[in-house]
Amino acid sequence: MWAAAAVLLGVTACHTGGGYTIGGNVTGLHGSGLVLQDNSGDDLPLSANGSFVFTSGIDQGGAYSVTVKTQPSNPAETCAVHNGSGTIGTADIDNVVVSCTQAGRFAYVVNESSNSISAFSIDQATGVLTPIPGSPFASTGTTPVAAVVDHNGTYLYVANHASNSVSVYAIDSDTGELTSAGEPLASGNGPFALLVDPSNQFLYVANMMDNTVSVFVIDSSTGLATPINGSPFDVGTEPTSLATDPGGNFLYVTDYANGSVAAFSIEAGAGSIAAIGGSPFAADTGALSIAIDPTGTFAYVANESADALSLYSINADTGSLAPLSGSPLGTGSSPESVTVDPAGRFLFVANVTGKNELTSYSITPASGEITPVSTVAAGGFPLSVVIDPAGTFAYVANEDTDNVSVYSIDSTTGALTPVRGSPFAAGVDSRSIAID
Known about the structure:
Elements: H1 4-9, E1 22-27, E2 34-38, E3 41-46, E4 50-53, E5 63-70, E6 78-82, E7 85-87, E8 93-101, E9 106-111, E10 116-122, E11 129-131, E12 137-138, E13 144-149, E14 155-160, E15 165-171, E16 178-180, E17 185-186, E18 191-196, E19 202-207, E20 212-218, E21 225-227, E22 233-234, E23 239-244, E24 250-255, E25 260-266, E26 273-275, E27 281-282, E28 287-292, E29 298-303, E30 308-314, E31 321-323, E32 329-330, E33 335-340, E34 346-351, E35 357-363, E36 370-377, E37 382-387, E38 393-398, E39 403-409, E40 416-418, E41 424-425, E42 430-435
Parallel strand pairs: 1-8
Antiparallel strand pairs: 1-4, 2-3, 2-5, 5-7, 6-8, 9-10, 9-42, 10-11, 10-12, 13-14, 14-15, 15-16, 15-17, 18-19, 19-20, 20-21, 20-22, 23-24, 24-25, 25-26, 25-27, 28-29, 29-30, 30-31, 30-32, 33-34, 34-35, 35-36, 37-38, 38-39, 39-40, 39-41
């Protein structure tokens, strides 16, 4: 665990044998037995989240390639490496990200009008939701509209649109119960979306009413956060959603009023953002939600007012977006929320207005193009769709019917089937859902 000051300073250089070191951060690790390798050697066992550095150094001009030798067990997890390969220049490498995931344990639904958070345990075999004792939990802010769990499953962050703040809750690792971690963080005007970067160091908040993104450095020991220098940053007009590539090198922000996507480079270890060349990139009317595939190769944007999806390829070096063939793609109903499964095989889109449905698409790996697979009924005004970390179930928060629809995902085709007992009752105006 890093304190905030250590996060800002990064990994201390250690030039073993005259070379430069390779290191980064591991997140989401709950099991035991994780072993990393660099260049098929230099085994590095890890037992906790936080920073790591390989022992052996590599001289300038040498190649490095970080891989997982042994995956964690008890519980079983899958760890993936991002920013893991390249050629040494004249500095240590400290931005390797190792992200570990297990099957979803808890689900949290923010209820806008009842100012509460409904908490559920997840049956990992069936996807069925069971209310956690004490749920719903009272919000420490007003009009909660969005939520995100940090990558270690330790804290829940909730954006409070009316009180211009972000609430922080500690998650009981055994029960899923929420406890306030302290006073809410002051954000900009009208916070609407949240993101924790892949290294688990920074919290990003899209402030819809003052056209900014606030950036906070997270204190891993408390979950509370402090604004970085220069925050908040101007990002466009009415920012409504946030996404990064898997390595946390670039930030993407949908600008609803402009119908575009603003793209920024992220300063490693500092969290600050700077617009990249060509930004903003055209989307369509009412750009509302964005998702990035797990390889960081493709981006998908739900354009609510245009009844269409925008599809892009991502330049891995610059972060720029280029429209895919056939983009934008009409959906026939206002797409409100979009997400990609953890394997990058399927895209899921929640459509509101008269249809109130969830559609799954298969993704062509080579091109990023999508093909409809199945469409199922959701509840009234489905506003938020998320996939559990194992890619087994889809969860949709339905604002008008105050509940959550849950579907099993066919692992071969991506077809959706409602699970037993779905939908599950939540609070008034269930607006957003987050999975631990």
